[in-house]
TrEMBL record:
Residues 1-68 form the HIG1 domain. Keywords: Membrane, Transmembrane, Transmembrane helix. It comes from the Bacteria. This is Twin transmembrane helix small protein. The keyword Transmembrane helix applies. InterPro entries: Hypoxia_induced_domain (IPR007667). It comes from Sulfitobacter sediminilitoris. The chain crosses the membrane at residues 6-33, 45-63.
Length: 68
């Protein structure tokens, strides 16, 4: 499974969601100017990244047959 290029793309998409989420949480926890300036943009990036990740996951399951 790890040698499948589509699986690698799915993992990278999920990792991108985690990175954006952690940056957003760090900004929220720290508050201040960074949070005021970037919080809405980071939320939009996270939603877009999650959408792409979910589409890739569903596509991966659909293309690979779903069940064995």
């Amino acid at each position: 499974m790890f040698d499948d290029p589509l699986f690698t793309i799915v993992l990278l998409a999920v990792l991108a969601v985690v990175v954006v989420l952690m940056i957003g949480l760090g900004g929220f926890a720290g508050g201040g100017a960074f949070n005021k300036k970037h919080s809405n943009r980071l939320m939009r990036y996270r939603i877009i990244a999650q959408f792409i990740a979910v589409v890739l996951i569903v596509g991966f399951v659909w293309l690979r047959g779903g069940t064995n």
